[in-house]
Design brief:
mainly alpha, 93 residues, 3 helices
Length: 93
């Protein structure tokens, strides 16, 4: 279990290299954003925003730090859901 946590944390720490730094270098754009642009759909994120973490960023922090924080929040949510579901199902077995 300990090795799994170390690997997950290492992947979270290096994720900005691929998601921010290299993506900016090669001019990468999300495929859904490209498709929406080609279809002429307008961007409504200014009108309807359900998250404070648009594009995995944290307002006021560099994009690389936002990627790491978003990764930590995502992993914490997954671990929390697995814990809750395991507790709910363990009583039934």
């Amino acid at each position: 279990m300990r090795i799994s946590i170390i690997v997950i944390l290492a992947l979270i720490v290096v994720s900005p290299i691929f998601g921010v730094i290299l993506a900016d270098m090669v001019g990468y754009h999300e495929p859904l954003d490209v498709a929406a642009e080609r279809l002429g759909l307008e961007d409504v994120t200014d009108l309807f925003n359900w998250t404070p973490f648009i594009d995995y960023t944290v307002p006021g922090l560099p994009a690389t730090i936002g990627y790491i924080i978003s990764g930590l929040i995502g992993i914490a949510m997954i671990i929390g859901l697995v814990y809750v579901f395991s507790k709910l199902t363990s009583d039934r077995l």
